[in-house]
Amino acid sequence: MTEPLHTERLMLRLMRADDLNDIYSYQSDPDACRYLPYEPRSREAVRQNLEVHSKRNTIAEPGDYLRLAIQSRLTSKVLGELYFRLDSTVNRSAEVGWALHPEQHGKGFAAEAASALLDFAFDRVGIHRIFAKLDVRNSASAELCTRLGMRREALFIDDEFAKGEWTSTAIYAVLEREWAARQS
């Protein structure tokens, strides 16, 4: 991915080192990290992750991923992030995920950003099926999946021990043809 994606209010682009303050503001927040696979991070941990993620810009082989900053076009502030990982080249499947600063919840930014990412994945990368894995307690992400036209395909009960407790995982997915039908 060499060029940012633009929506009405957002720019989706590769993360950069100068995003540190904005990303640290939510990755260090316990509420923002509640359903993420990591505990709140230190400033140094965020810096180290940014160093790694900012170098990832290719989706060619299974396991390749992008971490995209969700940047406000109005304020230039990073509001959150998107995750896109190529799962299989044979099956043309990919995983998506998102995290948003709690102050930005309820404003439609996650839906706007995720919709643009799905457009990119289906139209430019040639993905056939996109799925999201989320903690079943994360009702906001489940609602977002539904708004995006994703259906719940699976529920795994107590499949992960995370942050000191057993958690259950829901899988949501949408196919290329389903996405195209919604867009027309």
TrEMBL record:
Classification via InterPro entries: Acyl_CoA_acyltransferase, GNAT_dom, N-acetyltransferase
Limits of the N-acetyltransferase domain: 10-178
Protein name: RimJ/RimL family protein N-acetyltransferase
Keyword terms of this UniProt record: Transferase
Cell inner membrane listed as a keyword: no
Molecular-function annotations in GO: acyltransferase activity, transferring groups other than amino-acyl groups
Matches recorded under Pfam families: Acetyltransf_3 (PF13302)
